[in-house]
Amino acid sequence: MTLMKQPIVNINIDKLKDAVKGKTIALMMNTSALTNTGKSLIDIMHFDWDMNIKFLLGMEHGVRGELQGGVKVKNCKDPVTGLQVISLYDFPGLRPPADLISQVDAVVFCAQDAGVRHYTYTPWMMFAMDAAAKGGTEIIVLDRPNPMGGDIVEGGVVEPKHFSIIGGFAYPYRHGMTIGELALMYNDKYKIGCNLTVIPMEGWKRSMWYDETGLLWTPPSPNIPVLDTLTAYATVGLLQSTNVSVGIGTTTPFNLFGAPWINGRNLAENINKLEFPGLLCIDKYFIPNYTQYQGQVCSGVMLICYDRLLYRPVTAALNILSLIVSDYSDKFNFTSVRSYDDRAGSSSLRKDLLAGRPAKDIVSDWETQADKFRNERIPYLLY
Fold first, then answer.
1. Domain check: are 162 and 53 in the same one?
2. CB neighbours (10 Å) of residue 102?
3. Both ends of the chain: CA-CA distance in Å?
4. CA–CA separation, 223 vs 233, rounded Å?
5. 178 and 268 share a domain?
6. Is 256 helix (H, G, I), strand (E, B) or coil?
7. Confidence of residue 1 (pLDDT cuts 50, 70, 90)
8. Distance separating alpha carbons of residues 33 and 144, to the nearest angstrom
9. Do 246 and 202 have their domain in common?
10. Same domain, yes or no, for 241 and 295?
11. Whether the Cβ atoms of residue 96 and residue 131 lie closer than 8 Å to each other
12. Distances (CA, A) of 208 to 179, 204, 335, 375
């Protein structure tokens, strides 16, 4: 019995099968690595294809997606396949060493990006490419959709001294690229020399959001449970590494932000006065069950994005940050300067906010950077 329609977009599993035939491989995958019918690609490759899989590389949230952010993945046996999981957290700079990667003919990478730069899976792919280039190991990227589409580019790019696990090279906050396209750009622009194979999707168009692909959605991480969370994540992600809760520990992470010292009603009204197309804010009280402000009553704002095509989350984010820093200068602070600057891509945003620079000027600077990147990325676009 057929339970679902054929997806519009095809994750090219057949080409992957051909690409790994006869090779000893490592898998850099997680719970978001699914076939077109929603089956775990790890399980398919192990049980059905009978591949020679030497080990799995454990990224953030674990191979099966059960771990919260910040919880270190441990070396262990995968409970389903029995394969060895090697934690990437155990290596200096979170970078897999060349002597580990050189133990296999190829590393297969497949993980769902969130469309926002500070998502660790894609930089980890780049770290693996760096290591693979030293020993000639092939990196095979099975491409997946950018869940927020591939047309819109927003935000500033990362300065070289802030390249990190939340920004692997100089690309914008909302990059509008797939993981495969980012891999191609990184390999060429920085002359990495990786033996890179990207297996494109079939049927994906840059205008498509994830729910238009026909593919099954599975949370790529615990705090992005549904597709609607993505626009919220793109809006309040830059409140991370501050003393403002982004709703983690509630049932609507990233759709909420606030703190015990914020007046949610005033803040929601002030944001709505700016009339961001596609966005409505309402005041909301919430109590996080864990992490920041656990068990404390927070007053804050709930984001309602009612038109995702009109809405520009990065513009909204910069204005929201400016309002909070200005209105709560005696309460607001950055909990980790280094982490915040890596997330923003430079120290400029933090310094501009503290200096009271108008949000429209920061937005203008970031738009200039995004426009430049939009042209630079053209040779690497597959769709």
1. yes
2. 14
3. 33
4. 9
5. no
6. strand
7. very low
8. 9
9. no
10. yes
11. yes
12. 15, 7, 36, 20
Question: Dihedrals φ, ψ of 16, to 5°?
Answer: -65, -45
- Of 4-13, 339-348, 360-369, minimum mean pLDDT range: 4-13
- Give the residue numbers spanning the domain of 319: 229-346
Tokens of 147: 């869940």
Are residues 114 and 94 located together in one domain of the fold?
yes
Residue 220 CB contacts under 8 Å (≥ 6 apart), including other chains: 30, 31, 32, 65, 111, 112, 113, 114, 119, 121
Average pLDDT on 53-78 reads: 88
Closest CA to 238 of 348, 360, 127, 372: 348
Sequence letter at residue 52: N
Q: How far apart are CA 382 and CA 180, in angstroms?
A: 8
Distance CA(235)–CA(169), nearest Å, equals: 21
92/94 Cα distance (integer angstroms):
5
SS (H, E, C) 113-175: CCCECCCCHHHHHHHHHHHHHHHCCEEEEECCCCCCCCCCCECCCCCHHHCECCECCCCCCEC
Q: Look at phi and psi of residue 280 and say left if phi exceeds 0, alpha if psi is from -120 to 50, else beta.
A: beta
Mean pLDDT rounded to a whole number for the chain:
95
Percent of the chain at pLDDT exceeding 90: 91
Residues 6+ apart with CB under 8 A from 146: 113, 115, 175, 176, 177, 178
pLDDT at 3: 52
Q: Rounded to the nearest 5 degrees, what angle is found at the Cα of 46, between the Cα atoms of 44 and 49?
A: 65
The pLDDT score that the predictor gives to residue 336 is 96
User: Using one digit for the tens of pLDDT, what is the confidence trace for 247-297?
Assistant: 999 999 999 999 999 999 999 999 999 999 999 999 999 999 999 999 999
Give me the number of domains the chain comprises.
2
Same domain for 170 and 258, yes or no, is no
